[in-house]
Amino acid sequence: MEVVGYTDRLSVTAGETLSVMVSSKQPRYRASLVRMRHGDLNSKGPGLRVIEVPSSLDGEYMGKEQGLYPGSYVRVDDHGVLAPAGSFSLACWVYPTGARRGPQALLGRWLESAKQGYLLHLTADGQVAFRVDGADVVGDALPERAWSLVVASFDAVKGTLALTQQLTNCFSASGPRTATAVAPPRRAGMPDVPFLMAATQLRPDGGPATRGLFFNGRLDRPAVYDRALAAADVAQLFAGLEPEDIKGALAAWDFGQAIDSARAVEVSGAGLEGKVVNMPGRGVTGHNWSTRAAKFADTPQEYAAIHFHDDDIEDAGWEVGHRLEIDPSWQSGVYAIRLQAGDFTDYVPFAIRPARGQTKAKIAFLLPTMTYLAYANEHLATTKGRLLDALGFSVDQFLAKYATPFEAAVLRYILEQRLSSTYERHADDDPIAYGTRLRPIVNIHPPYNKPTLRFKYPHMLLCDLYITDWMEQKGFAFDVIDDETLHDEGLSLLASYKVIVTGSHPEYWSLAMMTALRRYQAQGGRIMYLGGNGFYWVISKDRERPHIVEVRRGFVGTRSLTGEPGEGFHSTTGEPGGLWRTRGIPPQAVVGVGFASASGLEPARPYRRTPESRDPAVAFIFEGVENEVFGEAGIHLEGGAGWELDVVDARLGTPPETVVIAKSFGHTDAFQRAIEELVEVTPNHGGTKDPQVRADVIYCPGPNGAAIFSVGSMSWCGCLSHNDYDNDTSRITENVLRAFSQ
Predict the structure, then answer these.
(1) Which residue pairs, CB below 8 angstroms and at least 24 apart, start in 286-289?
(2) Which of 288, 364, 432, 679 has its CA 20 to 30 A from that of 617?
């Protein structure tokens, strides 16, 4: 990507200022503002359509390349307390998960460029080692995914270094192992750098680019002492004595406290609180997890660990390139900052919401930005994994054959910058639980279509633009709002609208979002759910750092990864993660249908009307519709019912007033029932055998004038523009929206 950018927020309103961060490989780039009408280059659809919006942004600018610096750690500005002139010791429980990924720092005040200070670390071979200036003592390799107590000491009187390690393993008969070495006869001066955990300082100039040797794994109860600990002290630590209760503690940290924050709480009384940087895993089990509780709030002393990763990132921290003040005259909609460098163009999207209390539209389109953050920079299916391995493709071969130049540039940027979504794993195979909007999210930048072996399948924003483009084409006046703002403002964001139209895949919902939507329904609000696999996963938003969202998938649901035992609760809020279904609010109880099957990217199938669709109560939906079958063609997987499909289920809360007016048919065995739907695995849950493999279109009237229209498929939106917007899927959607907005 010759030029790439991101914004500090995904939606703004009149009078607010949007910060735009830009990185350009070219010496100059151009910037301008556009409103996105349609973002997909698909030759069967309207194509890429943007509307120029004059703004203060328009112009040419000097380019500057800005990098990403991942890697999580804890920083302690100790002001000299942790720079002892005489004897001292370090102690910590260590759980490596990528010990043989090169040298990795554990604890210390060390300046790599000067080889000065002290550092407890792992060697490239995974051996634990302790370095004081020019002297080293090296122990044994630490077993991966097992807890070991490590104690390192410098004895200024004896002039020795000692390193003791002891594995927590009931099948290990060996006790503590101690290695010793001679220390340097004269200590060099202590470097003027902070005390770091899970990383070290490479150069003295500071800044994110100077951190390195990141640790992959967990640290639990680190401590620093003003003396060389004896064997009896090590035995007490191993037996469970709190580190701060050992004599001579200069500092000790309990990561089981303030789990929902960026604080590393210091408990010895020294007041040396640390700052947790780049959002490593919190609320994870420690060395003493007894399994008697699976919620960190119940036994916080058993969750006094942090899981660090060398690819964690919370905030790219780029310099602000532009500040765009939102003009009140700009209509609500989906916009983008257009960046152009040479022949390369990047569209950085965001939404403009109506000013609070000034909306006149009866229709609101709810942009699923929380889902965008969960999928941010997702590349699971296209650039790694069993699919490419089985085909014998390299990433470059795959991109050359199946991706456009823009798609290839996007995916290469994701890989080069080590960006990932909550659908991937960290480099050490730990599930990714956090997403952030303070970094480039290039897989929602139009005209990115996710390339696969058979289809180009757009996802998220491109599909949502299918819907907003269609509403503009049909002359509907509407506002664009977003679900992060719904989380923040609740019912007040929805209350003035007659109807809320969802995106194609509103999959991730917080409790605040779900509560607001259900209150809106109870007060007579109408919902058009124009997608599939929605209202599915629980997501939370960090209270102190609102740019962060969290997903804990647990052990239930159709998922790309499974959580770790005892770690199903969100560290940011303390609430249980997983499916809304297991939280007691299945999608069927909200929008009448819920996820039941997925396709593996087979072609989408059409719908057929049901006998119930002839009921006079739903006749308005089919005005002008003469065909029994509809949705045979579209620009998303070639039809109306595809990718992920939803059905009614009275057991899960589909209201009894619900009328199923159409069902999809003809699905192949590439469509399979969702995992959470199955009690046992049999060969009878494919599309040719299982009647539950389908998409249901439903209408449901509710109290106080409320109503639900749900289409049960992520591909419905791709039919709206077919045949120049003149088709039965479009006509049905238009009939419902006109009726609902009355």
Answers:
(1) 286/93, 286/147, 286/218, 286/220, 286/221, 286/255, 286/256, 287/93, 287/95, 287/147, 287/149, 287/168, 287/220, 287/221, 288/240, 289/566
(2) 364
How, if at all, do strands 499-502 and 526-529 pair? parallel
CA distances from 580 to 20, 572, 708 (A): 35, 18, 19
Q: Are 304 and 312 in contact (CB under 8 A)?
A: no
Render pLDDT for 594-647 as a digit per residue (tens, 0 to 9).
Answer: 999 988 678 999 999 999 999 999 999 999 998 999 999 999 999 999 999 999
Beta strands in 302-447 (DSSP E): 305-308, 320-325, 333-341, 344-353, 363-367, 434-436
Tokens for 131?
């370095």
Q: How far apart are CA 202 and CA 742, in angstroms?
A: 64
Instruction: Report which DSSP code applies to 431.
Output: B
- Name the DSSP class of 327: P
pLDDT at 573 over 80: yes
DSSP 129-180: EEEETTEEEEEEEPPTTS-EEEEEEEETTTTEEEEEEEE--TT-----EEEE
- The residue type found at 325 is E
What percent helix, strand, coil does the chain show, rounded to 5?
20, 30, 50
Backbone angles phi, psi at 243, to 5 degrees: -55, -35
Percent of the residues in the chain that have a pLDDT greater than 70, as a whole number:
97
